[in-house]
Structure formats: structure tokens, C-alpha cells
Amino acid sequence: MSKAGRHFLQIPGPSPVPEPVLAATARQVIDHRSPEFGELGTRVLSKIKKVFKTEHDVVIYPASGTGAWEAALSNALSPGDRIMTYETGHFASLWAKLARKIGLDPVTAGENWRAGVDPDAVEAALRKDTDRAIKAVCVVHNETSTGSTTVVKEVRDAIDAAGHPALLMVDSISGLASADLRMDEWGIDVIVAGSQKGLMLPPGLSFNAVGPKALAASKAAGIRRSYWDWGEMIAFNKTGYFPYTPATNLLFGLDAAIDMLLEEGLENVFARHARMAEATRRAVQSWGMENLCASPRHFSPVLTAVMMPEGHSADAFRSKVLENFNMSLGSGLSKVADRVFRIGHLGEINELTLVATLAGCEMGFELAGVPHQKGGVDQAMRYLAETSAA
Ligand SMILES: *Cc1c(COP(=O)(O)O)cnc(C)c1O
Fold first, then answer.
1. Which of 139, 202, 220, 276 has its CA 20 to 30 A from that of 125?
2. What are phi and psi of 83, to 5 degrees?
3. What is the model's pTM?
4. Contact 324, 1 (CB under 8 A)
5. Ligand 1, atom 12: closest residue by C-alpha
6. Would you tell me which CATH number, out of the four given (3.90.1150.10, 3.20.20.70, 3.40.50.2300, 3.10.129.10), belongs to the domain 8-15+265-386?
7. What atom of ligand 1 comes closest to residue 174's alpha carbon?
8. What is the per-residue pLDDT across 52-105, written as a single tens digit (0 to 9) for each?
9. 172 — phi, psi (to 5°)?
10. Nearest-CA residue for atom 2 of ligand 1
């Protein structure tokens, strides 16, 4: 393999870190009890609210997204509480598994690895819950294993239509800052997010945006917790500090990443992602291949999961691409292992990065002997040129 040029990290997270963000993290560590840190903390904790579209508290953990999953559940829920999930893919299923491990009782309203959450199924399940045993509805915004995006507002409306008091918790670990999400307007009680996807940071930070209903629930009860406790965290955060050593250099990076997102404008960021996703789908269709997400209204702006032609290994194809073109594509997870590969088009993705990524795929098909029609890259280029702004 030629090592010239850069590695193409086109998995759906971690995503490549933009130069200004990398540069911001490459600083000497500072005292996390110093006035300088207090200013950084205050600034970042305030700015991050814009990304979540909330006026409520956003808690930042030095942890991967999985930690923030556990934090959300353990703060707002009590041992034995029933929660309702919907299996849109591997990540929805993992969150439910985690819930069971920490003593909750997850039940699922349905399963579909080729679309977003079906709000009618959620509403029907909540209507049947006449004794209000379900304490939270937990859904994944952007299902990173399948490339489907749930319309979160519809889930909110389903809960309201059923007149059910359950909390709405949303995993937007791979959705935040790539697909629109409006915490306050859509009445979301908790959003779980991570640093290494749309936020364009290295792995290592995760988030809980906490609405008033969830915060009240956490004060009344909750699962035993210490490290994850919202109460102590929010109390320290009021002056910009943390109860334990924060990931200082990732916070320098977060400061820079939020500036980049706000400078471009969140709506422009979402539109750019949608455009990259559409170009990718045109290439996939032109290759004669199928998108794992079969529901157009749920197509993900973050990634596209492509089904391999019958009898061909997605992993063998991905290896060829890595060996020959120094590009990482996402693997198929659990049920769709080796059956799909995933193209990440999130974060700092632009036209030329995407075209190169798709070209790597098209050349990879050739090398791996995967049957396909030529010209997918041409279709993507045509679309990108046609929809260029200037
Ligand atoms: C990446 C991801 C996770 C897991 O996050 P980690 O940082 O690997 O713990 C959970 N849910 C979704 C939707 C994800 O994309």
C-alpha cells in the first residue's frame, strides 16, 4: 500500500478532525481549577446549548457515548423501571442491553433495521400501557449501523397523542450537528451525544442535554450513581468547573469545533450533509446496489449503508479498499456483518472528499470482483455540480 497522501477515514465516526480543531487540542494542559479554565468551561457550556437547540443544562463527560447512555438512564430512572425502545439497528439494541444490565426493564415497540422508528407503533404501545409503567421512551436519532434517521418530532407527537407521561430520551450520538435536532422545540427530555461524529472531535467526550422534567426525575430518585451524577456536575458547571478532572484539551477542541459549526451556520451544516448523502445515494443506485435503509423519508444525512450483491463479502471488499487506497469504510454490525459496508459522509466532509471516497469504492468493486455498473462517481459529480451554490 502506498502511504503517500492522507488516510481517508470514511467510517461513520470517528470522523476526521478538522485542522483548526486539531490545532486547538495541541496546547499545553492548564490547571482545571484556574480562572483560565473557569472561563473556558463557562464559554463552552454556554455555546454548546446552541448546538442542542436548548436553554437547559448540557452535561459534558470525559467518556465515550456509551458512558453518556448509562448516565442518562441512571440519572432519570429507578431500578426496575420499564422503558420503551424501538430496534432500528445495532445501536438501539445495545442501548436496550445496557438498560437491562443496570437493572431496568426494556420492552420494544417494534423492530425495523431498514427504516426509522415507526411512531404509530410507539403510540399504540403507549396506549396499551394503561398503568403507566413505562417511564421513558428511548430512541436513536441517527442509527449509525443502518443509515436510517428517525423523525424525532413524530415520536414526541406519538407520546403526546397517547397522553403518556414517559420521558423522551434520544441517542443522537451520530446525529448531533449533522441532522437537525431541536431539544426544546421538540420536547426532548434527554439527548445523549458524543464528540467523535458530527462534532468533529477526537473520541473521548460525551454529553447529556437535560430538560427540566428529567432533572426533576433525577432529584426524586434514580439508579445509584456517582461519577455520572447530574446534580453535582450541574452545580460545579455553574461557575465553569467540573467535579473531577475534565478532558481539558478536548474542551479546547470543542470550543473550536462549536465555533466552526456556528460560523458555517447549523442550517447550512445540515444542508451540506443532506447534499453529500444525496450524491452518495445517486452513486449507489447507479452502481446497481441497494441502500440498507429502504424508507426514503428516513435516509440518513450522516452515512449510507450499502448492501453487497448476494454472495460477495463486504469485509473482503473493505480490505481491498484499505490495502490499495488507504481508505477505511465502515463495517456491517451484528445482523448485517459482512453483508453491508457503510460510507461515512459526516463532519468536515465536502465535495472533493466525497467524490474521492466514492471513487475509492468504485475502484474497490473492480479489484474485489464485485459486480457493479460503472459510472456511480459520475452521477455523484453531476449532482454535486448541478447543486453548487455559486
Ligand atoms: C457511536 C455510537 C454509539 C456508541 O458510542 P461510543 O462512543 O462508541 O461509546 C452509540 N449510539 C450511536 C447512534 C452511535 O453512533
1. 220
2. -125, 150
3. 0.98
4. yes
5. 173
6. 3.90.1150.10
7. 15
8. 999 999 999 999 999 999 999 999 999 999 999 999 999 999 999 999 999 999
9. -120, 40
10. 173
